Amino acid sequence: MKKMKRLGLVALLILFIGFITACDETDDASAKKSDSNNQTSGELEGSVVIDGSGTVYPLMARVAEEYMVAEQENVSVEVGRSGTSAGFQKFLVENGTDFNDASREIKEEELATATDLGIEVQELKVALDGLTFVIHPDNNWASEMTEEELISIFHAEGNISNWSDINPDWPSEKINTYGPNENHGTYEFFYENILEKADLVDDVDLQQEYSTLVTLISQDKNAIGFFGFGYYVNNKDSLQAVQVDFGDGPVEPSLDTIAEDGAYANFTRPVFTYLNMNAAKEKPQVLDYAIYLVENVNAFAGETGFAPLPDEEINEYLETLEKLK
After folding, report:
1. With CB atoms counted within 10 Å of each terminal CB, which end of the chain scores lower, N or C?
2. Least trusted range by pLDDT, from 25-39, 108-122, 250-264, 298-312
3. CATH number, residue 112
């Protein structure tokens, strides 16, 4: 009888140990699953590679900086500024960049290249920019001009050489024209949308670096150049923006006037980033950054010289990206 009791106690002990072991295994599995979920939706690592528009660069760099500090400290977001067209050449290749910033829409031939390579491209409008014409701060005669006068200065057949050709009361000094070169979407926007593909004046000085343009114009009293509003905002101490008369009086480019239906609409354009959807599907950090960008870009637009987007556009992009999770 005692022997049977001992056997019963042993059996109970074995059952109890088995129960405890099973619980531990369940807890371990739950912990591993939790860690896996955190890796997917919380703690990420790896890199996100972005290149393209110099105009969009300050905005994207600011968003990337905040993302790495406040959102994903183990993800490296690299932002370049080779120019819109040069950036697309890095984007539309095998193992290319994850995003390409652009100050113009993607071209049909670029989309064809993406199709040939099997790259699914998602356009994301990130802000609104105002094409801004800038002059030397000591220029006290040309601070206000009509849209037609500005175009004629850069138009090869505009018959404008000196300031006095615009207004006889202005100096009889040669106008020196400046702008970004053909690598930049800003040049393409100006050439295609403002000049309507007419030739620029032969002696226009086109530069790759916007900082170089700022320096050249700030040192030349007879200079006039063009680039995105953000580069003017960040250099107000050395440049002066031309107020443009579109027919109802001079309009100063500002965050209040830059809008597709606003007072500065004729010189307003959307700016973009293009997402490689293949990369977003394969690399969690790329999708996570894309969602963060769309959710937060309006918060950083104003401080980098851009007008924000309507909420309905933001929500449409978010809906598209959330489906990839």
Report:
1. N
2. 25-39
3. 3.40.190.10
